Amino acid sequence: MYEWLKAIHISFVIFWMAGLLYLPRLYVYHSASKKGGELDRKMLEAERNLISIIITPAMLITLISGMLLLFKYNLEVLQNSLWLQLKLILLFFLFGYNGYLTKQGKLFALGERPRSEKFFRLINEIPALMTIIIVILVVVKPF
Ligand code: HEM
Which one, 43, 51, 95, 114, has least CB within 10 Å? Predict the structure, then answer.
């Protein structure tokens, strides 16, 4: 059962990270589009679909499967596993990043251009970096 849960967890982590990597890309093109134009409308629809069909469900299933996996650990193990504590801290930021991106989508929907193209290109690297660090923490367990 535990291995099945882990397989589900990893699959939905992939979907979630794919969504988080793709969304700022859409914002890059959206930032350059004319307000009220054809591209503006298309980007809004693509962003809305990506958030509601991929990102939010994948985030929730990752969270639920991750919490269930956490039941394996008792409080003592949790206190002594620095890798797990670090992972949970990074997850806190990842959820914050997810919320921040969703907020930007709402601002685009209101007709705003909240940030520059360069800004969205830059923050696009965050989930990639987080994924590398989290996977090293959970697989190698260096601490
Ligand atoms: C959303 C909240 C999350 C929670 C509560 C959570 C919790 C857990 C737990 C408890 C395990 C089992 C660790 C073990 O027994 O070795 C696990 C496995 C794993 N997690 Fe997460 N996780 C979450 C999100 C993520 C994210 C965002 C990533 C990657 C970016 C990730 C990647 C992995 C991987 C690759 C494994 C399998 C490690 C192995 O080979 O055993 N998890 N997770």
Answer: 95
Protein residues with CB under 6 Å of any ligand 1 atom: 6, 9-10, 13, 17, 62-63, 66-67, 69-70, 72, 91, 94, 131, 134-135, 138-139
Domains of the chain by residue range: 2-140
For the entire predicted model, the pTM comes to 0.93
Atom of ligand 1 nearest to the CA of 130: 30
Residue whose CB lies within 8 A of the most ligand 1 atoms, among 9, 64, 88, 132, for a mutation test: 9
**Tens digit of each residue's pLDDT (9 = 90 or more) over 42-55:** 999 999 999 999 99
Q: Which of 92, 97, 96, 114 is nearest to 105 (CA)?
A: 114
Q: Which ranges constitute the DSSP H helices of the chain?
A: 2-31, 38-49, 56-70, 75-80, 82-109, 117-123, 126-140
- pLDDT tens digit sequence for 68-91: 999 988 888 888 899 999 999 999
What's the sign of the alpha-carbon dihedral 99, 105, 111, 115? positive
